[in-house]
């Protein structure tokens, strides 16, 4: 006797409901010490942030967990405010340096918050014995990146710690930008049917840093994608004024960005593996290392959720900008399965895409 279809549907429905309820639970945090996984941008990072920092500093702006906080002044003007720290090793890598990252990372956090970046601060923690020539080179990279992004470093701080207590140099930056009238980006604006757009090829930065460390017997022509994204964001907002939400896909890559969005909205994200822009060299390196490109960090790529009727115009506009030639629609927002990210494979199957687990990648920013 064949199974009752109604029973099958009911059982599958109950199973799906249990999965959704499980994924909506607050992330567990049972660690007694901090590990490297807590800085990888995946599940461990999310649990640490939720149980330690959000719990301590809870307020409406912080709980949005965006790349920057959008703050309204008494005058009615809105500012975006963001901060970041940079601890990458090595300090210099193909395509950039920690100096480039320090500027681009904060500029991009402001840009995907909908703001026009204006001012930065920069704080340096220097290890005793750090070569001054290397410091000058890094600062020159920061000056170049700031000039190209149209921002000014207006304040800062310098500390020196004893030899052996830091990896040469750490940089912290904060930034302020002005949010133009009419620009509003938030997870609660996302709707089923919206499209997922990425602004460029995935995974280049994480792979470039990993290979630059020199402890892998892999040779590949891969350079970091580090760049300021404010001009791409501006072009997107002109072409797709109903853009719902944006995030730059840094630690944890596209997978983490989409999982965070799914968790915030309760909606599902379905990506199409065949549409993901990944350079052949990056894909080859990922395959050799057993790493999914959607988990690899980017420093010059953002993810945007746009209205379906504006998706084509958004991609056309991005492809006309510097670094945007590989922009593509790579997925859509769906009602079910809610709170989850799935990937359609080229073979017609579907797999779940979870947040990064553990610490398989190097310190990339």
From TrEMBL:
Residues 67-179 form the PurM-like N-terminal domain. It holds the Pfam family AIRS. It comes from the Bacteria. Residues 191-338 form the PurM-like C-terminal domain. Belongs to the HypE family. This is Hydrogenase expression/formation protein HypE.
